[in-house]
């Protein structure tokens, strides 16, 4: 990480760039070791899912939100950057998932479980679902850049997250495998992304927003072999 990021000038005022991790500078993502902890399926199967479409036929359970209600909308609608998430009542069903987020030791924003129905085809995922996230709205100058981290809950060995530097250039594509326990961090405001999931059952995964900084760096290092 850059300890002292340089100032730049925008519209006549000095702007301190957001702090970013060197480890994400090259490819924009990092794949970690498989999670060691066995998580009981009740932690994701017995929570309430809301209809919310993002990157496919999806539903979301909201474990942490801007003000602690189960609202999947962006934090900016409450005047907050995607940080300092407040646990919702739903997280009582998911203590291991809460621990997974808190174990990183960095500021987190939204925490959700995604339930993704099987994809129609790889081509349709590319043409319809590739997108960039809006993670850094209201993120103050000089603070840590917000990235996303995943924990795959179901075992989906034929599924993968597609990430592309250039949406329309397949040569820039990488594929992140999604076995049970897959953990990875993606700068999803930089990389176009979507999951290809052939099924046949829904895929479940935890998604959270993490602030880049020394804590996230250490968590990544602890989870790399
Ligand atoms: Fe996304």
User: What is the CATH class name?
Assistant: Mainly Beta
Shape: globular
Report low-confidence residues grouped into runs of 5 or more: none
Strand content: 25-35%
Overall pLDDT level: 93
Question: In which range does the helix fraction lie?
Answer: 10-25%
CATH superfamily label: B-lactam Antibiotic, Isopenicillin N Synthase, Chain
Secondary structure class reads alpha+beta
CATH topology name, in short, is Jelly Rolls
Major β-sheet annotation: 8 strands, antiparallel
- Cα Rg: 17 Å
Small-molecule components bound: fe (ii) ion
Straight-line N-to-C gap? 20 Å
CATH architecture: Sandwich
Count of spatially separate domains: 1
SS summary, helix count: 4
* Count of extended strands: 13
Strand and helix map with partners:
Blueprint: E1 8-10, E2 13-15, E3 29-31, H1 42-45, E4 50-51, E5 58-65, E6 86-87, H2 95-103, E7 108-116, H3 122-129, E8 146-152, E9 156-164, E10 173-178, E11 183-186, E12 192-196, E13 203-211, H4 214-222
Antiparallel strand pairs: 1-2, 3-11, 4-5, 5-6, 5-7, 7-13, 8-11, 8-13, 9-10, 9-12
The site of fe (ii) ion (FE2) has 5 residues, from loops.
Written overview of the protein:
The chain is built from four helices and 13 strands. The mean pLDDT is 93. The protein has one domain: B-lactam Antibiotic, Isopenicillin N Synthase, Chain (Jelly Rolls). It has 225 residues and is of the alpha+beta class. The longest helix has 9 residues, at 95-103. The chain binds fe (ii) ion.
Labels describing this entry:
225 residues; Jelly Rolls; 3-stranded antiparallel sheet
């Amino acid at each position: 990480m850059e300890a002292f990021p340089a100032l730049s000038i925008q519209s006549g005022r000095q702007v301190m760039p957001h702090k970013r991790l060197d480890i994400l500078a090259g490819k924009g993502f990092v794949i970690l070791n498989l999670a060691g902890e066995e998580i009981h399926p009740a932690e994701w199967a017995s929570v309430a899912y809301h209809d919310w479409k993002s990157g496919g036929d999806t539903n979301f359970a909201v474990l942490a939100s801007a003000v602690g209600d189960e609202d999947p909308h962006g934090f900016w609608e409450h005047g907050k950057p995607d940080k300092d998430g407040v646990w919702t009542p739903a997280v009582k069903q998911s203590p291991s998932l809460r621990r997974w987020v808190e174990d990183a030791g960095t500021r987190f924003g939204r925490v959700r479980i995604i339930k993704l129905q099987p994809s129609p085809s790889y081509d349709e995922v590319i043409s319809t679902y590739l997108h960039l996230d809006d993670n850094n709205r209201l993120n103050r100058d000089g603070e840590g850049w917000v990235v996303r981290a995943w924990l795959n809950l179901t075992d989906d060995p034929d599924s993968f997250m597609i990430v592309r530097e250039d949406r329309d250039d397949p040569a820039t594509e990488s594929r992140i495998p999604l076995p049970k326990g897959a953990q990875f961090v993606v700068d999803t405001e930089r990389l176009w992304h979507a999951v290809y999931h052939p099924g046949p059952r829904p895929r479940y995964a935890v998604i959270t927003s993490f602030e880049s900084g020394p804590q996230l760096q250490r968590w990544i290092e602890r989870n790399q072999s």
